Amino acid sequence: MNFSSIIGHDRAVDILRRALANDALAHAYLFSGEPGIGKRLTAYALAAALNCEVPVPAGGCGACPACRRIAGGTHPDVRVVMPESRDEQLLATWSSKDIEKASDEIKIDQIRRAQESISLKPSEGRKKILIVDGAEAMNEASQNAFLKTLEEPPGDSLIILITSLPQSLLPTIRSRCQTLVFQPLPRHTLAEVIRENRGLSEEDAWFIAALSRGSLGRALAMDVQKEKAEREQFLALREGLAGMRDDEILTLADGIAKDRDGFDRLLDIGIERLRDLLVFHETGDARLLVFAGAAESRAGSPGPFVLEKVLQDMELLNRCRGLLERRISAQLVAENLFLKLARP
Ligand SMILES: [Zn+2]
Q1: Cys-Cys with 157: which of 120, 128, 152, 337 at CB 3.0–4.6 Å?
Q2: Per DSSP, what are the bridge partners of residue 163?
Q3: 39 and 135 in one domain?
Q4: At CA 148, angle to CA 142 and CA 149, rounded to 5?
């Protein structure tokens, strides 16, 4: 693991490399950006640059024992703190009953142990590194305790906070860190990487790249067939509505409303579909669409494109999503929605 294995994020990597070269690293960094985008890899690469056994200017070699142990999470001077529920190495040692009880929070005793550990001298490397992955999961007590370390960081230490929700951190924490924002990867970059990595067809790679909102981690984990099937189902449902009787529509709506999360997901797909129609109308470029890969033959508009109708539907779906969030009966929302969509 070193800076050359990071895909995208040239700006963030450049800033870190320059700081390394000028011996001007901040005491604490806040890496913010979408989940799965490369923040943790970059934190490991920075840790490797600081503790690599081979003198490589402004970066780690990625191959020496120190770099390899950092990548594997076993270097004694690089400590990663995260909620139990996200710690795969920890959960692998737990029974399934205990896994259910894994905490989603970073608790104050985890922070205290990490503080003790970085206050000691490095045992093998040159710098002690503390990475808090999912920093937004620190509860208030943890954040307050953590603040003390940020106020007086031990001399040969570096702190890296990683989060997709920087606004959930205390302003006093944010202001003591140098923030690096990790931007979503461009769609063509993602498509290229996953085509090579997962052996996908160009069409599937573009489809997954569109769905993963710039996050390589998400793109690598996504199930192509499942995502396609969901969109095919949606299109079939949408097309079938027009020919149904009212009582058939109500039965269908009631069935879908029984699975609240599934219904919510269906609304997301509906909004994504309407966005596609707008984009296709504006650009005529099927490669910019999410649905282009899922249903090639139906990439464009199913009927004549009416801007007003598309915007109206979008407002309707957004309103339904809001009602579900406010815990309004899913059955009521679904019945109302499907009747409106079927009888414009
Ligand atoms: Zn190395």
Answers
A1: 128
A2: 32
A3: yes
A4: 95
Q: CA-to-CA distance for 166 and 146, rounded, in angstroms?
A: 15
Residues 61 and 117 in one domain: yes
The rounded Å distance from CA 59 to ligand 1 centre is: 8
10 CA → ligand 1 middle, Å: 21
| Residue 19 token pair | 């700081």
142-154 pLDDT, tens per residue? 999 999 999 988 8
Both 209 and 244 in one domain: the answer is no
Would residue 254 count as lying in a domain?
A: yes
The CA-based diameter of the chain, rounded to the nearest angstrom, is: 74
- Which residues span the domain enclosing 247? 223-342
- Does 338 fall in a domain? yes
C-beta atoms surrounding 163 within 10 Å: 23
Q: What is the pLDDT of residues 44-73, one digit of tens each?
A: 999 999 999 987 777 889 899 999 999 998
C-alpha of residue 29 to centroid of ligand 1, in Å: 22
Whether residues 12 and 134 fall in one domain: yes
